[in-house]
Amino acid sequence: MRRFALRVKRTRRGDYELRLPDGERELLRSLPGQLRQTLPTEDAGVARLFPPAYADDPERDAEYRRMVHEDLMAEHLEALQVMEETIDARRLSGEQLTSWLGAVNDLRLVLGTRLNVTEETYQEEMDPASSETPAYALFLFLGWLEEQIVEALASGGG
């Protein structure tokens, strides 16, 4: 089995080397803007980023949302902004890479919700002719990248 090269690696200086080929950078470049446009909407995928705190108590849940929604939105937007600003960077600080982790996770959650990904989805073989295959491939790529970011951050620092 061929192993893919690491895309994120902690350096001896304590920062992180971002080893994304140009094609992957181009793919990732447009995603934060797309999510930013969708965040303020009632999109079912976006709802996944703002889960209910009190699913069985609409009144308490509404109060919770009034208290935290703006802060959560600001966190999502900040992570997307950092990703956009550093998409061409070769090195990232721990703080920047943590923002990347948040942005990639948000992108993956929204896409996975739209695709209705479940545990069983991973067991199914994708039909190459399906209109969902490119989106599912992007979902898998984002998961793979997220895993590499987590492993790099866990290797020390960040």
Secondary structure blueprint with pairings:
Layout: E1 8-10, E2 16-18, H1 22-29, H2 31-38, H3 44-47, H4 58-85, E3 91-92, H5 94-115, H6 133-154
Antiparallel strand pairs: 1-2, 2-3
Q: Could you explain how this protein is built, in words?
A:
It is built from 6 helices and 3 strands. The protein is mainly α. It has one domain (8-154). A hairpin with a 5-residue loop joins strand 1 and strand 2. The radius of gyration is 17 Å and the shape is globular. 20% of the residues are buried. The model has no long low-confidence stretch (mean pLDDT 92).
Quick recap:
The chain is mostly helical and 158 residues long. The chain has helices at residues 22-29, 31-38, 44-47, 58-85, 94-115, 133-154; strands at residues 8-10, 16-18, 91-92. It has one domain (8-154).
Residue share in β-strands = 5-15%
Which class best fits the helix and strand makeup?
A: mainly alpha
| Secondary structure: number of strands | 3
SSE string: EEHHHHEHH
Radius of gyration: 17 Å
Helix fraction bin: 55-70%
User: Number of helix segments?
Assistant: 6
Number of domains: 1
Average pLDDT score: 92
Overall 3D shape: globular
